[in-house]
Amino acid sequence: MAAPTTSTPAPERRRRSPSGKVSFLASQRGRDLTLIWLFLLPSLAIFALYRIIPMAWNVVLSFQFWSPYKPAEFAGLYHYEEMLFYDDAFWQILWNTILFMISAPVGIALALGVALLVNTQIRGRNVYRTIVFMSYPVMTVAVGIIWQWLYNEKVGLINFLLISAGIIDRGIPFLQNFDFALPAVIIASIWQVIGFYMIILLTGLQSIPPNLYEAAAIDGASPAQSFRRITLPLLRPSIFLCFVVGIINSFTAFDLIFVMTGGGPGHATDLLITYIYSTAFTLSKFDYAAAMTVANFLLFVLLAFIANRLAGGEAGAVRREA
Questions:
Q1: Average pLDDT for residues 279-302, to the nearest whole number?
Q2: Does domain 79-310 have CATH number 1.10.530.10?
């Protein structure tokens, strides 16, 4: 009697191509990937329409003499040369942006102190967390108006307290003074974002296994040594995220600057984003503004890369189990 022969089931045969291989769309992995891309397609299309295409056009525009009223002409590196060698205001504004960005570690350090405090078993810690976080959801325009009133030379609360304490005799025009204006805006920015930093750092603190601190205490480590050897290394991803948020804030703090000072006095509080806006929509130099936008983007990418390397080089990486 002949041995029974086995045949490929009908469904399996339908999945195979004439060459005998299973087609990509017919495989389970192929169907999953196709479904994923179908779900992602609307978001990717919107991202390309409002991010990728405008950025690409912006790069092209930076190499042209362009105006809405005449045809474009090739300019080469003219706008970049003007930005780097002939525009003195650009370097002052770049320095303002860097100072604004440097303030991020100050806010992160303050938020870390608050996070460590509210992470302990103190009474009413949930209330303290809520109070600190309440500043972040407030609209930036409202934050600017509030701090503009606080800094007011005549009716501001800060000048009132300083005069009442006998520290000064007359009100200080914080937002009209070239030396005080930028620090005043930086303080307002830190006040707004410190609650967000606290939440991120608090989440990182609560993810640290308590047995690490118990083992360190058994080995005789002091609280300072535990903080330096355990807390800070394990908080590096959270600190990196806060620092990136701080970098983004320094490059996008248009509304706060616009409401509080408008970039003045002079260019004392101008950041790259506000200078780009005024160059494009006040002076109608869209081509030069495009070149500054490219420089702004490259600077942001460079700073994010440096922050990632300082955080260990794998911040934000997703690990897949084998």
A1: 91
A2: no
